[in-house]
Design brief:
three-stranded antiparallel sheet; alpha+beta; DNA polymerase, domain 1; 397 residues; four-stranded antiparallel sheet; hpI Integrase, Chain A; Double Stranded RNA Binding Domain; 19 helices
Amino acid sequence: MTRALNRLSAAALKTAPVGKHADGGGLWFVKRQDGGAQWVLRVTAHGKRREMGLGAFPDVSLRDAREAADKWRAVTRNGKNPIKERQRAKREAARNMHMLADIALDAFESRKAELKGDGKAGRWFSPLELHVLPKLGKVPVAEIDQRDIRDTLAPIWHDKADTAKKAMNRLSIVMRHAAALGLEVDLQATEKAKALLGKQRHTVTNVPAMNWRDVPAFYQSLGDSVTELALRLLILTAVRSYPIRFIHVDQIDGDVWTVPAAAMKGRLGATSDFRVPLSTEALRVIAEARKFARDGFLFPGLRKGVISDMTMTAFMDRRGLAERPHGFRSSFRDCTAEATNTPREVAETCLGHVSGGAVERAYRRTDYLEQRTAIMGRWSAWLTGLTGHVRFMGSQR
């Protein structure tokens, strides 16, 4: 029986004439006129005779061809069509060979519409790009398990806890995206990885903020470059850096700047824009910034777009300051708490914060624009030296 199945020899294949040569059991060596050769297996599946190619010779050796023939004969004996089974296996292999980097980019593209500025700043993608993809980017997503994720994020799990959390969150979204694409992935891999990594030991630290009493001196030391004008407006309005960097002339109407809801973190409502009262000094800064405007943006970058989120921070670094631009919001809030009796809800609204419970907010429709206009005007006067006494705001009740 063995001789009936294995009729050919490796040596004979090299000198075989043109034609079909049987090795037995339906395996044929086919020599063509052009000198090439290939392997063909003949089987009977579902009552029909079929031929399936097993590859070209000599890429597929005699031994390889016999092993493949044995495999597909067994499939046929189990009542399956070997040709269709091979096609199905190829499709599954193709689905499962998608690399994590490709899936991550596809997930990012799918979510851009939900992100600020269509995600052009790259903040959503950067935790993956910096801390996950360098190690796992070229790994098929179907092969990634909790141990891979643990080993990848372990170096930053405690030392850079916030970044690690973001990376884990983004990776979880990417895994779900892969599953939605029909790929075989472990949707629990990130949760299992968290269990392996353990509870984070990170202690939250606040953004360094300048003492509110020192802010006027810093403000008055600023010049009129694009970066310094941006810092001036940030301090004057107590708005976050993102809306400042992307402020557009079309958003300004008289002495009110309307920040689109999409640019407001923690905005007052899912679709609510945020009105910012502009003091006389803020309007002066905006007038100066208009000289530098490009495509309507008041604070353009050197080559394209707007200034980056690190531009103002780098300026403060060059001044030898540990404080950060975002900290001026805290400076303003501390001032309203320590030097005034401004109602809490008004002070919080100045920062664009949501205050009060859901029911309270449903009935409170005002954004306190009139009160905030007065507060920001007095804050501006304090910053520019027009008001010398710390209790410059008085009662707002």
